[in-house]
User: What shape does this take?
Amino acid sequence: MPPHNPAGHNEHDHEPEKVDISAGYERSDTNVTGIAVFITGLAIFVAVVGVLCYGIGAWFNARMNREDGPNGKWTKTADVRQLGNLPSSPELQNKVAELTKSFPTPRLLTDDGDQDVADLHARESLLLDNYSWVDQKSGKVRIPIERAMELIAQRGLPVAPAVQTAPLMTGDSKPTVALPLTDGFAPTAYEQAQAEQAAKTQQAEK
Assistant: This one.
């Protein structure tokens, strides 16, 4: 059976091109023009992208400065490059503390919040257990909570006027509230540990 040979094609048309390798090197020159065109185009592309990025950055900065306005008493420009890489150095930590000292409250917590909660409870206890002025001009005084409970036990609570309520619908029930709702805040584990440490110190001193 003769091999497949489409009409109009000769087997000799597909013979590989003969290359003279007697010289031992490539005789044709490199296309210098193509390389120069590529490098020039690449340089133009990089320059255009750089100018475009710089323009976009300048536009964003101008817009933020216009919206934020000039620096006031709560804002200032700080040169963070003076801080370096922020290694564990007390000197650099003091610089960071000085920068953050001028920030308005509320500030981010610098620890897990145990001390802040303890300070809050201490301030609340100070208000609950002592006399203090509410409005000195009008003579309003805040009294300790123990004295307030004694006065309420003696005089009773003021009776509020009856509130007219709509009749309950089918399947509804009147809500009930168990009193008292709360007996004050619960001390945290951190405060309990501090109280135990203070009690041990007092016992050791005795």
